[in-house]
Amino acid sequence: MRKAVIPAAGLGTRFLPATKAMPKEMLPVVDKPAIQYVVEEAVRAGLTDVVMITGRNKRALEDHFDREPFLEQILESKGDLAKLAAVQESSSLVDLHYLRQGDPKGLGHAVLRARAHVGNEPFAVLLGDDLIDEQDSILDDMARVQELTGGSVVALMEVEPEQISVYGCADVVSSEVDGSLRIRGLVEKPEPIHAPSNLAIIGRYVLHPRIFDVLDQTPPGRGGEIQLTDALQTLAVSEGEGSGVYGVIFRGRRFDTGDKLSYLKAVMTVALERGDTGPALREWLEEVRTPARQSADA
Predict the structure, then answer these.
(1) What angle do CA 54, 86, 71 make, to 5 degrees?
(2) N or C, which end of the chain has less CB nearby within 10 Å?
(3) What CA–CA distance (Å, rounded) separates 158 from 268?
(4) What is the DSSP string of 257-270?
(5) DSSP-derived secondary structure for 145-158
(6) HSE on the CB side for 242, CA within 13 Å?
(7) pTM for this prediction
């Protein structure tokens, strides 16, 4: 597996007005935009060719991963080599390509836009607002399962039953491949009472290229959009090359940077674990908590 697709065409309405003129993927997690963490994850997994699916007002994404000679020259002349290296890093991570989605027809449509670029080979999909802790990689395991089964693989995460209605949900049975489950059904955002499990689909996929043929024939579903979940449901119950869908359960740390609270948790977690910000931030947090304790004791 060499290629990755990163859908990043969403409007980011949950973060308005901050995202009125700035893509939600460019919201900073300490000093790097959220989207850079996603690209770095793809690079760590050995992916060498990344296509980003963008939309209107997303030019900042392309600018961020491009060279900025004037800024680099200024930093070099000032001798600020640390900042220079950080700026240059984002433009040398991986071979990046960009495609416009055009009409906002859903995640399935965004993935389908990458068909000509991906061709006839398995590929990864990383959603641009899902941050996976770099110590908890899952793409390698998913690629292994895909190679052994010849099907498609989704990342699953256990959630509280009442939370399942905001996710795609998997109906699973045991699998012949260690570390995976066979998926026999997928439901997009079910009501908790109708959910077949508490296993939610999160934003990592390793897909057989047959998914493109299925997406091309998938009618609009929930919300009037072409749902990737619906196409995967078709593959889950089909036969022949590229059929079958499997799940790998993710048990590490994951943040949804499209959700305000989860985004703040991502910022705090990264800041606390960094040597340049962690110690002072912990000290400040303790100062903030101490008056709260005193007030409660009083």
Answers:
(1) 80
(2) C
(3) 23
(4) TTSHHHHHHHHHHH
(5) HHHHHSSEEEEEEE
(6) 18
(7) 0.91
| Per-residue pLDDT, 297 | 59
Report d(CA 246, CA 144) in Å as an integer: 11
What does pLDDT average to in each consecutive run of 10 residues of the chain (298 residues)?
A: 92 86 91 94 94 89 92 92 91 91 87 94 93 88 94 94 87 89 88 89 95 91 84 90 92 90 94 94 89 60
Question: Domains of the chain, with CATH numbers?
Answer: 3-258 (3.90.550.10), 260-298 (no CATH)
Q: Distance between CA 254 and CA 82 in Å, rounded? A: 28
CB–CB of 105/9 below 8 Å?
no
DSSP 8-state assignment for residue 198: S
Q: Cα separations (Å) of 6 from 101, 180, 279?
A: 12, 24, 34
How far apart CA 200 and CA 132 sit, in angstroms, is 15
Instruction: Determine the Cα angle at 179 with ends 175 and 159, to 5°.
Output: 95
Cα–Cα separations (whole angstroms), residue 25 to 6, 43, 78, 227: 11, 18, 30, 21
Question: Residue 298: its pLDDT value, please?
Answer: 56
The pLDDT of residue 56 is 81
Structure tokens at 138: 């899952």
| Pair 117, 51: CB distance under 8 Å | yes
Closest by Cα among 236, 271, 246, 267 to 138? 246
Q: Rounded to an integer, what distance in angstroms lies between the CA atom of residue 274 and that of residue 186?
A: 39
